[in-house]
């Protein structure tokens, strides 16, 4: 999801810090630690196709997705794997400076419907969309362990936007 204007606190500019990677809660397996920044897919026909479940073999996609989100971090708060051409149910979201990867994310419960306006790195402009303020979500982490958590507000919105990508839905 595209970073909304005014979202997040203005950070102090520290020279030389711009290219510093955010810390991770989990370390994905990397191919020698080489960053693989992928081009962003804009093709609406490709993006309208639902993604297949992710498995442990898809972990290199997570690394690429993290690298690509990092490269676009100034204007992007979350990405789904199909945005880099991989039709697998994998998303990465920003929680402040931390990036969290979720494999096979699924919303179990949602409450507090509202109308949001969102932008997307794959699309031009912004669109109105119905979102839920609070969601209960399950996913698999990088060790393929099943996790469950509650998300509210902006983080919940990002996850809903990225799960829509996995379902082939565009805002
Ligand atoms: Zn998007």
What brief labels describe this structure?
171 residues; alpha+beta; Peptide Deformylase; 5-stranded antiparallel β-sheet; 3 helices; 18% helix; globular; binds zinc ion
Let me know the CATH homologous superfamily: Peptide deformylase
Mean pLDDT across all residues, rounded? 89
Continuous helix count:
3
State Rg.
15 Å
Outline: globular
CATH topology, by name, is Peptide Deformylase
Amino- and carboxy-terminal Cα gap: 10 Å
Pattern of helices and strands: HHEEEEEH
Bound small molecules, by name, code or SMILES, are: zinc ion
What is the CATH class name? Alpha Beta
- Extended strand count: 5
Q: Tell me the fraction of residues in β-strands, as a range.
A: 25-35%
Which ranges are low-confidence, i.e. pLDDT below 50, for 5 or more consecutive residues? 22-31
Any guess at the CATH architecture? Alpha-Beta Complex
């Amino acid at each position: 999801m595209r970073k909304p204007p005014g979202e997040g606190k203005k950070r102090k500019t520290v020279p030389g810090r711009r290219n510093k990677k955010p810390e991770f809660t989990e370390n994905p397996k990397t191919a020698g630690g080489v960053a693989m920044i992928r081009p962003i897919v804009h093709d609406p026909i490709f993006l309208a196709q639902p993604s297949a479940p992710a498995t442990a073999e898809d972990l290199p996609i997570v690394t690429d997705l993290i690298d690509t989100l990092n490269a676009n971090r100034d204007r992007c708060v979350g990405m789904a794997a199909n945005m880099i051409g991989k039709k697998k149910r994998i998303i990465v979201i920003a929680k402040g400076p931390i990036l969290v990867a979720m494999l096979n994310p699924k919303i179990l419960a949602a409450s507090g419907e509202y109308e949001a306006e969102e932008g997307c790195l794959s699309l031009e402009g912004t669109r109105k969309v119905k979102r839920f303020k609070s969601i209960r979500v399950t996913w698999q982490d990088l060790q393929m362990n099943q996790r469950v958590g509650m998300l509210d507000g902006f983080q919940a919105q990002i996850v809903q936007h990225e799960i829509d990508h996995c379902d082939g839905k565009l805002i």
